[in-house]
Amino acid sequence: MMDFFFKGGPIMYPLLLCSLISLTVIIERIIFWMREGKRKDQHLVDEILSHTEKGDYQKASEIAGGCGDYVAKVLFCGLAHRDFSLISALEMAAAQEVKRMKRYLVILDTMITMAPLLGILGTVMGIINSFDLLGSAGIEHPRAVTAGIAQALITTATGLAIAILTLIPYNYFLSKRDDAISDIEKYGTNLEIVFKKNKSVETE
User: What is the DSSP letter of 11?
Assistant: First the structure.
C-alpha cells in the first residue's frame, strides 16, 4: 500500500488530505443522524398537535419544550410566539434545524469535485515527466516511459475512488435532510391550520 502511495507522486499527499477530511465529516454526520434518530419521538409530536387542537397551548408548549425531536423544537418555537407571528417563528426555527442538518455537507461536495481534479492533475504532471524522459532517453527505452505513465494514472484512480466513496454517504445525508424538511413542513403546516381554526372558533 505504501509503495502504491509513493508511486503516485507528490499529488498523493493532497489526495490523502482529501480522504481524511471526507472520512472525518462522514463520521461526524453519521453520529449526528444517529443522535437525531434517538431523539425522534413521533408519539410526542402527535401529542403536541392533539393538545393544540384542544386549545391547550400551555400543555402543548410544555411537551414540546422538553423534547429533543427536531420537529417538536420547531413546533415549540411556533407555539411560544403564536400571539405575535406563528408562521415567522416556525420558519425561523425550521431554518435553524435545516442549517444543522446541512452542516459540513458543502465540504463533502467540495471533496467530490476536488479529488478527481487533483487526480487528473497528478496524471498530467506524470505524463509530462514521461514525455520529458522520452525526449531525453529516446524510444530505445520505452519501458521507462510506460512505467511513468502507469504511475501517473495512480493519482486519477485514487481521486476517483475518493470521490465515489464520498458520493454515496453524501447522497444519503441529502436524503435524510430532505426527509426531515418534509416532516418539518408537514407538521408545521398542521400546527398553522389548527391554530387558525381555533382562532376562527374563538372569534365566533
Answer: T
CA pair distance 131, 145, nearest whole angstrom: 7
Give the C-alpha separation, 167 to 110, whole Å. Answer: 11
* Structure confidence by residue, pLDDT tens digits, 109-166: 999 999 999 999 988 888 887 777 666 655 566 665 666 677 778 899 999 999 999 9
What is the DSSP annotation of 132-198? HHHHHH-TT-HHHHHHHHHHHHHHHHHHHHHHHHHHHHHHHHHHHHHHHHHHHHHHHHHHHHHHHHH
H or E stretch at 30: helix 12-39
DSSP state of 74: H
Domain ranges in the chain are 11-198
Query: What are the tens digits of pLDDT across the range 53-93?
Result: 888 888 888 888 878 899 999 999 998 888 888 889 999 99
Q: How far apart are CA 6 and CA 127, in angstroms?
A: 16
- pTM for this prediction: 0.85
Cell of 49: 398537535
The grid coordinates of residue 54 equal: 384542544
Q: Specify whether the backbone of 55 is left (phi greater than 0), alpha (psi in -120 to 50) or beta.
A: left
- Report CA torsion sign: 7, 13, 17, 20: positive
- End-to-end Cα, the chain, rounded Å: 77
Greatest Cα-to-Cα distance within the chain, rounded to the nearest angstrom = 98
